[in-house]
Fold each of these.
Amino acid sequence: MIYLDYAATTPLDPEVKAAVEGVLSVYGNPSSVHGVGRQARQLLEEGRERLAKALGCKPRELVLTSGGTESDALAIYGVALARGRGHLVSSELEHSAVLTALKNLERLGFQVTLLKPDSRGMIHPEQVAEALRPDTLLVSLMTVNNEIGNVYPVREVAEVCRARGVLFHTDAVQGLGTVPCRVEDLGADLISLAAHKFYGPKGAGALYVRKGLELFPLMPGKQEQGYRGGTENLPAVYGMGLAAEKAVAVLAQESQKLLGLRARLEAGLLALPGVELNGHPTLRSPKHVNVTVLEADGEALLLNLDLLGLAVSSGSACASGSLEPSHVLLALGRSRAEARASVRFSLGRFTTEDEVDQAAALFAEAVGRSRLSSASPHSAASAGA
C-alpha cells in the first residue's frame, strides 16, 4: 500500500512513538498533589512548554484539548457564548468542525456571514473587511485548506480584524509542520492545532488563546485554567510537544522536499487528458494535490485506487462515509459529479520519489477503469478484471 493521505492523518514519528511509550508507565493524575501526580504534572507541562516554544507563545496561553475539532469548537463557541449575541464571519471552505459550530450558533440567534471563494479557492482580506459589522465578534479563517491545500493570507486578515477591534481565529490544523505557524507568523488571537497532523499521537490538540481573552468553557472543570475540564491525556500531550518541536525544526528542509515531490506528482497526474487541478496553482501547501477527473465515475475511481493499493482521499477524512460531494469543491464551482470524481493526494515526511511515480501510474490505470465503468453497466471491478 502506498500511503498518500497525510492530510487525513500522519504516521506517528518513530522518535515520538518511543517517547510516548516511555511515558505510558506514568499513571498519576496530573492534578494530584502526591509524588506520582507531581511526576505526571511535570511531564505534562514539559509537553506544553515544548509546544509553546514551537509556536512562540507562553505555555499558559495554551489550552490542551482532544484535537482540532474540540479546539475549533472552544474558539468559536467560547467567544460567542461569552458575549451572548452578535455576528461572526467565516468562509464556505472551512472544515466541518467550524461550519457546524457556526450553524449551531445561528440556531441560538447569532448571525453568520460565509465568504465565497474565487474560482481558485482563495479568500481575500478585502472580502473580510467588507463583511465586518459593528457587532462582529469573531472572524474564523483557516490557515491551510485541508482539501485543496490553499494557503490563506491569515496575517493580513488578522491585521484587518485588529484594526476593527474584532477577534480572529485560525484553524491551523493543516498548517503546523507545513507552513510557518508561529504566533507572530499568523497574528491570530486564537489558533487551533491537532497533534496527529504533524506526526504526533491522536487524541491531543491545543488552542492558543491570547492572554487576556475570555472564553465560555465547553467542558466544566478546574483543569486548563477552567477552560477545559477533564484529566489531560498525558502521553498524547507529551508526544504532541515533541512532534511540534521536530516539525518546526525540519520545516524548511521538509518543505523543499515536498515541493519537489508535489511537482513530480502533478506532472504525472495532469499529463492525463481530462484531469484538472483544484485550488491555487502556487499559493498552496507543498503537500497537497487535488484533481478532478472529468467524465469519470467517482465511486469507481476511488474503489479502483484502493484496490490498486493507493491510499488517497476524496476530501476531508471527517466526511468519510458520506455520499455528499465535497462542499469545498462545490464552492469552487465544480458540479456534484465532478466533485465526486475528485481525488486528494497528500504527501509527507516518509513519501519517496518511487512512491510518487508508482502513484501516478496507478492513478492512470484507475482513471481508465473508472471511465470504462461510467460508460458501461458493469462495475469498476468487472471493468478491471
Note: The two ends are 19 Å apart (CA to CA).
Amino acid sequence: MTKEPAPGFKRHMLPEHEDLLEQAGTFRRLMESRRSVREFSDRPVPESVVRELIRTAGTAPSGANKQPWRFVAVRDPGLKSEIRIAAEEEEKLFYEKRASQTWLDDLKPFMTDAEKPFLEIAPWIIIIFKVMGPDPDQPDGVDNGKVYYVNESVGIACGLFLAAAHHAGLATLTHTPSPMKFLTSILRRPANERPFLVIPLGYPAEDCMVPDIERKQIDRIMTIDRG
C-alpha cells in the first residue's frame, strides 16, 4: 500500500543511476581539479550565470529551513576598489602584527601577502552574509527572527556555491580578511547581517599558476567503524 504524504510534505524522489560508483567517481574527479585561484582574468561572466550559481547555493540544508544567508554579488568597479582598499588594510595588519610565526610559515608555500588585486580584477565578488535575528526590512510578524545552526548552514551553502561554480567552468577563491566589518558599511547591509566569506568569481588569468599541492589520501580522512 502506497504511503500518502502528510499535510505539508511531498514524496521525495532521487535521480537513479545504473552505476553509483561511476557516478560518484565522476563527480570526485571533477572536484579534484578545483583549485583556489588568486590570478583572475577580467573576462566578463553573465549575471544570469551568477544568479544560477546562487540559486544552487540556496538549495543547501539549513537549521529549521531558515536559510540564514544573503549572497551579495558585486561587479561595480568602484565598490570592488573600495572593498580591496579596506581588505588590504586588514590584511596588512594580519601579516605584520596579528598572525603568529607558525601561521606565516604555513602560508609561505602559497606565496600570499597583503596585496589582493583579484578583488578588483575578478568580474564578480560574491560576499556571503549570515543572517542573524529579525530582518529589519520585513514587516512585524512575517518572520520571528529565530535562526539555528547558522554557521553550519551558511558554510554548507558556500560549499555548494564553490562546487557549482567549478562545475560551470569558473574559478573561485575563499577570501577571509579579518575582521570583515568593513563589508557591512561599504555594502550598506542591515544590522541583522554579518559578513561570513568573500568569494571572487570569474575565469583564471591566461597564465594563472596555483601551488602544486596534494590532498590527503582517503585513509587519512576516513575511518570506518565496523562495530
Note: The first strand starts at residue 69 and ends at 74.
Amino acid sequence: MIKWKKQGVINKGRIAFITSVQGYISNPGGGEYCMTKAALGMAAKLYAHRLCEFDIPVIEISPGIIETDMSLVHKDNINRGFIKRGST
C-alpha cells in the first residue's frame, strides 16, 4: 500500500481486521479461537502504529457474540460465563 500510494496507484489505503470480544476473555473450551482473535487485535494495533505516518488507517471491528450456528453449540457456556461475571 505504501508503494502504491507513492506511485499514485491508490489514493488512500485502508486495512480492517475483524476480531471478536473472545480475544479479550479466556475460554478454556475455545482457547485457540481466543488466542487467534487476540493476536489479530494486536496485529491491528501494530499496523496502525506503523502505518499512521503514511496516512493508512487501520481499524479493528470487534463484535460481541452473535447468534449463529457456530455459537449456538456454546450458548449455555456463554450464558453461564456472563451470569458468573455479572454476579461478582
Note: The radius of gyration is 17 Å.
Amino acid sequence: MNTHAQRLTGETEATAPSRYTRTAITLHWLIALLIVGNVVLGLGAESLPDDWVRLAVDTHKSIGITVLGLALMRVLWRVSHKPPPLPREFPSWEKIAAHAAHFLLYLLMIALPLSGWLHDSAWKDAATHPMRLFDLFEWPRIGYIMNMAPALKETLHDRFGALHTWLGYALYALLAMHVGGALKHEWIDRKSVLKRMLP
C-alpha cells in the first residue's frame, strides 16, 4: 500500500465511530427487552389462569406493535448514522456473516410483528373485540384483511399464525447466534464488539 493510501486508511479509521450512538444503543436494548418479554408472554400465555390469558395476549400484541415501530426507527437511524466498524483482525467471512445476521435480524424484527398483525386482523372475532394498545387507545386492524369473506379470512388466520410461529423460531435462533457470537468475541477472541453497544 502506498503512503497516500495508508494515510487515507488511517484517516478513515481515526474518523470512524468507535461506539454506536446513544439513540442506537437505547433502541437496541429497548427492543431486546421487549422481544424477551414477548417471548415469555407468547410461550407462557396458555399456562396462565384463564382470567389472565386475554390480558397476556393483548399485552403480547401491544408489545409486538411497539417493537415494529421501534425496529423501523432503528433501521432509519442505522441508514442515516454510520455504525462503528468491526475490528480489522476479523476475517472477511466473519464480517460478511455479521452483516448478513444483522440484516436478517432487522428483517425479522419487522416481519414477525407484521405477521402477528395480519394474523390478528384475520381473526373471526376481530370486529367485536377491538384491539387496544396497552389499553390506552384502540389500534386499527388491517382493514383489507378484516373485510374479507369469512372462509378466506379463517384460512388466512391459520396461515398467518403458522408464519408468525415459524418467524418466531427463526428470530430465536438468530438471537442465540447473535448473543453467542458477541460472547465468543468477548471471551475467546478478546476482541470485544459488545462494548460498542454498552451504555
Note: Confidence is low (pLDDT under 50) at residues 1-13.
